[in-house]
Design a protein that fits this description.
27 strands; two-stranded antiparallel sheet
């Protein structure tokens, strides 16, 4: 039986999709086998071979605060979140530090990108383009003051968000998490899937015709609580959330492995982590997109996992009713799975003729693929599967019983054993160290890194592979491979599943997505590029790294602004401590390309001239950075004789909601992040020898940091690496940790720091020989801060 502290339960449900604007309406239509797939009314279909979509029809999406500031994806998510909170009988919090928000998305603000391009390039659309605003705006509405981030793992994002919510609760970082996914139907995904010739002209029928997908839109949100918290407030409990499994294929950026190897691994992990037997699972809500490759791989996976061990399994795909809602799919299907469980109902796949049913019999074997209409069935546990571009696989189990969820009781020391760096100072560890020693600083207000062909040769990356990558993915692949090499870590068939990757990014694939919009804006939706489209998903960079390196473990992309670089480290720590993986790559990755330079300039964030942090300037030097760190259990590092640069002792988060897009956060939230990190690490403030700050030369950002650090640490030295590499957002946040590790290890022997005293700012040289503990801090729009403590 699961220990009470590890029990996670669902207490609230919210949903909006093509077959209903609420859970009740959607469920009623599922039971009536209603499909929401119709001819699209919102995108240009001229010369397009497929014209169907499952679109939301809702007149109240704008009944929210400041709708003009929100993309359609955020509006969909807010509607589902509002319903879920009400269903859970949870009042809106007031920056409740024990309430977190994790929201998955694939295309984020795609509608706003299209609107910006076609309607005069209004700068008000810019802040709505990334995925990052979605969770932040839900947190502002709900009053959540805990960890707030988005998962950008394409079609697996919604499922991974629910799994991550449980990780945070079991790690003691949250009591309540609003978890789910949201995506809107837009020209970019429509044209992209057209270019892949992956759409079904007649509406999808997964596990049946397998001739293509039909895109949908919507949002699903579940309220996940610790059992103790739900019990204490007398909450209604729908079910338990047991275990989840997350893997990556290391195979192809858009197609699944035909042998289903890593899908099977994800499903097996979910079952093992849940502590249930295979025969207890009565129903699987499959990913079931409707394409032959996806459906055949999933058919194979289900048979290999369950044949001979469960002769009473039912399976279906509800996408024939809702369409494929991309990053929202897993969340919507989680709600359907929970409703199926609690009402003892198995749901159907629509579109079967009598001839189809006969064809299915041999293929299905003893698995019942439910056709056309639902039926009653006594259920104890159900599974929901999601598989995505980039080769990401996620499986999760919901149950009426507590199961036997096992969470590792060990508390390993987390060591940094490998570094991969690309930034304007240099593309190798040695080049970066040399530039710091020379005190190099930018002379222009926009600086960027260019990957050279020699770097691919050095890392054994073939040119044919390189040509598939956009700039964002190039940065990730090079630093990831460099970090593995620096750690003297060879990925083999034996250890590939033991190594995972968390990528943190602020804007992610926004540059490639906008590039794709320019293409189809000029030539029409029928002329999208099958070559460019895969790079529009945020997790493509992590997927390419997996393909290049061969790693097959836990792989997630998180996006919530600059703080995402530290989120990748915190998330990786959780994965190792839970015993999910032995080794993790934690990456911060953000690019600077002309499109992004223009967007930041239009927002007024870019400096008009180069200025130092804390100087009272009002703009930053725009940079880029990709920083990959190999993290592993200290015992594992010693066993394989790895070099240990430093240890990560703990992390903390603070949030006090401000309107997304407002640059100023709050002193209170930063103080809390620091206090929580110190407490998590068992370190006192006076034990911190040096701080690596996020100051970037923008007064409204720098002043909060200066005030809080003066209050908490007095005249302790503060190193601001952005004065050298510019504002590289998530990439720079992780670089701050790498820089700290290099100083603790003695590779960087000294550095020039800032000291605050009685309101004045002075400079001081810090020698690495006296350093034992360091603090790294970062921020994000919306009011979030994260702090990480490192030790020698």
């Amino acid at each position: 039986m699961t220990e009470e502290k590890n029990r996670c339960v669902v207490t609230g449900l919210g949903m909006i999709c093509a077959i209903g604007n609420s859970v009740e309406e959607s469920w009623k239509n599922v039971l009536a086998s209603v499909s929401g797939i119709k001819h699209t009314k919102t995108v240009d279909t001229e010369n397009c071979y497929a014209t169907l979509a499952a679109e939301v029809n809702c007149d109240t999406l704008d009944d929210i605060d400041a709708p003009e500031e929100k993309d359609r994806a955020s509006k969909l998510c807010l509607k589902a979140a509002k319903e879920a909170l009400a269903d859970a009988s949870l009042a809106k919090g007031k920056d409740d530090p024990r309430m977190s928000v994790i929201i998955g998305s694939c295309v984020g603000g795609a509608v706003s990108i299209e609107h910006y391009y076609k309607n005069g390039k209004n700068k008000e659309d810019i802040l709505k383009m990334p995925i990052a605003p979605i969770a932040s705006q839900v947190a502002e509405f709900a009053g959540a003051g805990g960890i707030v981030t988005n998962v950008g793992n394409a079609c697996a994002a919604g499922t991974i968000s629910v799994a991550y919510a449980c990780d945070l609760i079991r790690a003691g970082k949250a009591d309540v998490v609003l978890a789910g996914g949201a995506d809107s139907f837009a020209s970019i995904p429509y044209s992209g899937f057209l270019s892949l010739h992956a759409l079904d002209e007649n509406g999808c029928s997964p596990f049946n015709r397998c001739t293509g997908i039909t895109l949908g839109e919507g949002a699903g949100v579940v309220v996940v609580e610790s059992y103790a918290h739900a019990k204490a407030r007398g909450a209604k409990v729908y079910c338990e959330v047991l275990g989840a499994g997350v893997t990556t294929d290391a195979h192809h950026i858009t197609a699944p492995r035909e042998d289903g190897l890593c899908q099977i691994e994800a499903i097996e992990r979910a079952i093992t982590n849940s502590g249930v037997s295979k025969k207890e699972i009565g129903y699987v809500n499959g990913h079931g997109t409707g394409t032959a490759k996806n459906d055949n791989a999933e058919f194979l996976s289900l048979h290999k996992v369950f044949d001979g061990e469960n002769d009473n399994l039912s399976a279906s795909s509800t996408k024939a009713m809702t369409g494929h809602c991309l990053g929202a799919a897993g969340a919507i299907e989680a709600v359907f799975s929970i409703k199926a469980l609690t009402t003892n109902t198995v749901l159907p796949t629509l579109g079967y003729t009598e001839e189809d049913k006969e064809k299915l019999k041999e293929k299905a074997g003893k698995i019942e693929f439910v056709q056309n209409v639902p039926h009653e069935k006594e259920l104890t546990a159900v599974m929901s599967n999601s598989f995505a571009f980039g080769g990401n696989n996620a499986s999760i189990i919901f149950s009426k019983n507590a199961g036997d969820v096992k969470v590792s009781s060990s508390k390993p020391n987390i060591a940094i054993t490998g570094l991969g760096l690309v930034n304007p100072l240099g593309h190798t560890k040695d080049a970066y160290i040399a530039a710091v020693k020379a005190d190099s600083k930018p002379t222009e207000t926009s600086i960027h890194s260019t990957i050279e062909t020699s770097e691919y040769d050095e890392l054994g990356i073939k040119m044919a592979f390189y040509r598939k990558l956009d700039n964002f993915s190039q940065l990730q692949v090079v630093t990831g491979m460099r970090a593995l090499k620096d750690a003297k870590l060879s990925v083999t068939e034996e250890n590939a599943k033991d190594i995972g990757n968390i990528v943190g990014t602020s804007e992610g694939a926004l540059g490639s997505t906008y590039d794709f919009e320019e293409l189809i804006g000029e030539k029409g939706n029928a002329k999208g590029s099958a070559f460019k489209f895969p790079n529009t998903v945020y997790n493509a960079a992590g997927g390419y790294l997996s393909i290049c390196s061969g790693l097959k473990g836990y792989s997630v992309t998180v996006t919530s602004g600059p703080v995402s670089g530290l989120t990748s480290i915190a998330y990786s720590m959780n994965v190792i401590k839970e015993g999910q993986e032995k080794i993790m790559l934690a990456t911060g990755n953000d690019e600077n390309i002309p499109i992004l330079d223009n967007l930041f300039n239009e927002l007024g964030y870019k400096a008009k001239s180069v200025a130092a942090p804390y100087s009272g300037a009002d703009g930053f030097v725009l940079g880029d950075a990709s920083t990959s760190l190999v993290l592993e259990d200290d015992a594992n590092a010693k066993e394989r004789g790895a070099t240990v640069y430093a240890h990560i002792l703990g992390y903390g988060n603070g949030r006090k909601n401000v309107r997304f897009g407002q640059l100023s956060g709050t002193e209170e939230a930063l103080e809390k992040a620091i206090a929580d990190a110190l407490a998590d690490s068992g370190v006192k403030a006076d034990e911190i020898d040096v701080i690596y700050g996020f100051a970037n030369g923008m007064k409204v950002v720098d002043d909060i940091e200066k005030t809080v650090l003066s209050k908490c640490f007095g005249e302790k030295p503060v190193i601001a690496i952005k004065e050298r590499v510019g504002e590289g957002r998530a990439g720079t946040a992780t670089l701050q940790v790498a820089h700290a590790a290099l100083m603790l290890h003695g590779d960087i022997e000294s550095d020039n720091a800032y000291v605050f005293s009685n309101g004045s700012v002075s400079r001081k040289t810090v020698e690495s020989s006296g350093l034992k503990k360091a603090l790294v801090i970062s921020y994000a729009l919306g009011g979030s801060y994260t702090a990480v403590v490192l030790g020698k």
